From TrEMBL:
Has 3 domains, the large (RuvB-L) and small ATPase (RuvB-S) domains and the C-terminal head (RuvB-H) domain. The head domain binds DNA, while the ATPase domains jointly bind ATP, ADP or are empty depending on the state of the subunit in the translocation cycle. During a single DNA translocation step the structure of each domain remains the same, but their relative positions change. This is Holliday junction branch migration complex subunit RuvB. Residues 67-200 form the AAA+ ATPase domain. GO terms for molecular function: ATP binding; four-way junction DNA binding; four-way junction helicase activity; hydrolase activity. The gene is ruvB. It comes from Corynebacterium poyangense. One of its GO terms (cellular component) is Holliday junction resolvase complex. Mg(2+) binds at T82. Homohexamer. Forms an RuvA(8)-RuvB(12)-Holliday junction (HJ) complex. HJ DNA is sandwiched between 2 RuvA tetramers; dsDNA enters through RuvA and exits via RuvB. An RuvB hexamer assembles on each DNA strand where it exits the tetramer. Each RuvB hexamer is contacted by two RuvA subunits (via domain III) on 2 adjacent RuvB subunits; this complex drives branch migration. In the full resolvosome a probable DNA-RuvA(4)-RuvB(12)-RuvC(2) complex forms which resolves the HJ. Pfam families: AAA_lid_4, RuvB_N, WHD_RuvB. GO terms for biological process: DNA recombination; DNA repair. It catalyses: ATP + H2O = ADP + phosphate + H(+).
């Protein structure tokens, strides 16, 4: 027990809250997001390749007077896949019908939705990689032939009734394109890969959101919020709302650099966008295990979180930021992680020699 007491980290009594920098949509956030979402491709900030390619697909279909090909939007959460589906329907002047993969548990669930579709409508399925297999197999025929077979009855007396459906455009969104089956992926005529945003584009996102919210913000304050938003517009908008609260409580509502920095410090979002859980993982890895390698289950126990949370929510950004590396033996802290914690990295730290050459 004495050895445990001497370690420099401890298990927190409660899991660290990370709602501010979690790219997943939070409960009760839909209305706030809806007011900030752009309504057209021209208003959409960032993703220039996706906007140009999608514009060609939609304009070509309009010129020919046909329904556009089915669209697959792939990328991490919070980058605007749902917003893009709304823009597609808006650009086409049609209705948008929304559902999610987990909600389509049976083929009948999908059949009920498809039977109500009108010609030219856009059907948006979020997290389409989680759709149940029976519904997915029905979707094949609907996407290709605009027809579904509805099974009536059970057992030997079951009858298949063909049902024609009007031409429609399916927009599927996924955060895990690798989990899509080959037959489903091949039926999409256009696939777009959404990329993380740079600070310049995120600053524009913050400026636009501030105008919509009626908030006065200085350019350097907008840039500060953008630089801590982990390349994700949803996080940028969320942090802006928290900074607005801080500015209204501690000032006159005007957001300057000091207000932005003070608010982000209160909400435990550091200069790189890391929160308490991110820093706890790095601290365990560096201070508790000398930089690793350490298994993800060990890290999760040390910070008081589920291993899936550490692996799916925390790790992706730390890897992208160059703080940790995944190896066959476990997670390893890089020289950048040591420095971010204010420590001198050892000579064997990953990336140590590369950083010295850059210096």
């Amino acid at each position: 027990m004495s050895g445990i007491e001497k370690t420099e980290y401890s298990v927190p009594s409660q899991p660290p809250r990370r709602e501010h920098v979690d790219p997943q949509a939070q409960q009760g956030e839909h209305e706030a997001e809806l007011s900030l979402r752009p309504k057209s491709l021209a208003e959409f900030i960032g993703q220039p390749k996706v906007r140009d390619q999608l514009g060609l697909v939609l304009n070509g279909a309009r010129r020919r007077g046909v329904t556009p090909d089915h669209v697959l939007l792939s990328g991490p959460p919070g980058l605007g896949k749902t917003t893009m589906s709304m823009i597609i329907a808006q650009e086409l002047g049609t209705s948008l019908r929304m559902t999610s993969g987990p909600a389509l548990e049976r083929a009948g669930d999908l059949a009920a939705m498809l039977s109500n579709i009108m010609e030219g409508d856009v059907l948006f399925i979020d997290e389409i990689h989680r759709i149940a297999r029976p519904a997915e197999e029905m979707l094949y025929m609907a996407m290709e032939d605009f027809r579904i077979d509805v099974i009536v009855g059970k057992g030997p007396g079951a009858t298949s009734i063909p049902l024609d459906i009007p031409p429609f455009t399916l927009v599927g969104a996924t955060t895990r394109a690798g989990m899509l089956t080959g037959p489903l992926r091949d039926r999409f005529g256009f696939t777009a890969q959404m990329e993380f945003y740079d600070v310049a584009d995120l600053t524009k996102v913050v400026d636009r959101a501030a105008r919509i919210l009626g908030v006065h913000i200085d350019p350097d304050a907008a840039c500060e919020i953008a630089s801590r938003s982990r390349g994700t517009p949803r996080i940028a908008n969320r942090l802006l709302r928290r900074v607005r609260d801080y500015a209204e409580v501690h000032g006159d509502g005007h957001i300057d650099l000091a207000a932005a920095q003070g608010a982000l410090e209160v909400f435990d979002v550091d200069s790189l966008g890391l929160d308490r859980l991110d820093r706890a993982v790095l601290s365990v890895l560096v201070k508790g295990h000398g930089g690793g390698p350490v298994g993800v289950n060990t890290l999760a126990v040390a910070v008081g979180e589920e291993s899936s949370t550490v692996e799916e929510v925390c790790e992706p950004y730390l890897v992208r930021a160059g703080m940790i590396a995944r190896t066959g033996r476990g997670r390893v802290a890089t020289a950048a992680a040591w420095r971010h914690l204010g420590l001198t990295p050892p000579d064997h730290a990953l990336g140590m020699h590369l950083s010295e050459e850059q210096d």
